[in-house]
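Worked problem 6 (solution included).
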Amino acid sequence: MARESVENLPFSDDPAGLFAYSDMFFINRLLWLGLSLGALAYAEQHFSFDFFARTQPQQSPALRVSAHTTFSKLPAVKPQFGGWLSWQTSWRLTKLEFSNLVRQPVFLITVGLLVLLAILLTTMLGLNPDFPELPVTSRMTALRLSLGLFIGLFLLVMTGELIFQERTVGFWPIYDALPQSNFVLLLAKLLALTGSAALLTVGLFLTGVGVQLGSGFSDIDWGRYVADLLTDGFLRYCQLIALGAFVAALVNNRILSHIISLLLFAALAFWYQASKSEPSIFLYSFLPGSATYSDLIGFGPNTALRPVLHIVWWCIAGVLGTSFLLTWNRGIVASLPERIGQWRNQFNWPFRLAFLVFGILLGFSIWQTQQRLLALPATQSIQYKTSTMAIPSVSGQSINVHILHRHPYQVQHMLRAAKIAMHRGEQLFGAYPYTDLQIKEIPVGAVDILSKPGQLLISEKQGWIADNRQPDKLDHIDYLISREVFKQWLVHRLTPKQQSGDGFIRQSLAEYLALQQVAKQYGPERLRQRLDQRASWYAASRQHSRKAESALLQSSGNDALERGRAALALNSIEQVWGDKPLSFTISQFYKKAVQQPDAATASAFSDELAHQLPDSLDYLKTYLSEPVWFDFKIGRVANLANGLTVEIITSKWRENKNGQRQPVPINDYIPLAVLDQNGHTVYRQLVNPNPDERFVSLPPLPNARKVIVDPLGAWPEPNKRDNSKIF
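Solution. The predicted structure is:
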């Protein structure tokens, strides 16, 4: 109607402004608005809450006939706690706590870091500077010691965080109001932490096996993995969890419990590291002999102590864990005396039995420990395998070389090294002075190597487990065998007297000859690397010593001087004079000392050296009698058509007792080498630079790209960075 009214309006009546419609249109709108409001009022009156409250429901006739109502009995709900149900509840809570724990980013990051550190320690960070090592199982399980500090700190922190978790997030009013006992709730947390410790241990195991298999090493000792990672790994981590839980209950403060737990663990770890030479047996969770394990004798005299001490620590861990369950309070935090006073309400027969059992076992274990300490064996028997080689001697008889070993990986290499050293020794000193030579593998511990007449005792860490798949890096074995074989003549045959300078005879001469064997078999580059090691060793010893620097010919009992500095000094002489005349001088000294035992002194060798040296090289003997230092620097280089001109700036000095430099006039010969772009030597010459004549002329060398002074690094210098220049 409204629409028709609008459509039928004449053109002149079309709306031209606001409210310009006809009266009929407004009447229509008001009519419909009134009808709508009336319908709304009716609906509100009949469908409101008051309407339904006043209206009675209509009952069907069938329902009105029923006179009696029947009820069925439902089973009564009776809450049950304790017994087997408590263990079931603990197990369900354990799975919940464990899943929540391992899904946390901090746990995943920790596992990733653990695996990464383990791989780095066995591949890059833990590389042996002397030779590449095989990934034997004892090396892999030793990761539990180097990474034990990291794992222990993590577990102690996670123990405190998990115990205080409900209080940290504000959920404790509901959690503490649960009907389960402390035993059920707290045992679940301890078991979840134990599961995380098991995961970390499995991570170490898988990493070790992965490194071994990835390196192509298949001689895996599975029993060693189980024994080491279980006893010194997982079970020790559980004991630390018990310690952290007890501290948390005792302190009842999250931050303070972290601080105390970490301080206790740091003190235990520091004391254990400080007492490695004489291990203390009463350090909670630590077992003696772990750091000195040997594949030959196991844990040595501590083998009998470790099982009993392990029971001692587990008894203490049991006491700590039981005390944690009793001391932890629920609800409002109470003081320590009040919490201990609550023991009377919870100290029922299971707790009493636990304390009784742990106490009896603890007392018995301590008594057993004392008994076994009194009965420790002085030595341990070792089952050896023997390999033998007959070496012809200049005397016409064969020399039998016997190798008694536990690790077979480098036996053949050692036999070859002994054969070469024997031939070289007989060339220099005559017939081998003994009937045979025994090379014996000894457990790691007291000494790395010990030489006796006709016998070499070499620690299992000194080349026995070297990686035989990298033969070009096994020069340390040749050096070690050669050095000790030469000592059969220079030390055991001569028997130098204990006096000033005897260290030069006992150590330095054999050191030089052994390094020359390395240079012949592995090249001058490997010799340069070994001399760099000796130079760094000697420099480090000087930094830690406040005594005045002494000369080589006066040294006694100073390995860094007699082997480190001596290797540099004797190789400096060899670079100028040559190996053949220097070795001949050592040979002549030995033959004279054999005939006159009193002549086996450092001064006698100095006299022999002075006798053999030409007059122009007489200054070389001062390398042994004076602690001189050098500094070489390559200045300007001119590569002209008629030749190569090199400027060499040199200086020489000695240090007085106060460490001050005293300049010494220099007129020494030093080797100068010219290299091409590939690093190959194209020219080599002995030069004699001095402050008055610093420029050295060389022939035309069109392929020259680099010049270097002292290419072997034999002259002792505090800084070798300026010894070369590229042009």
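Discussion: The chain has four domains: 2-44, 84-374, 385-624, 628-726.
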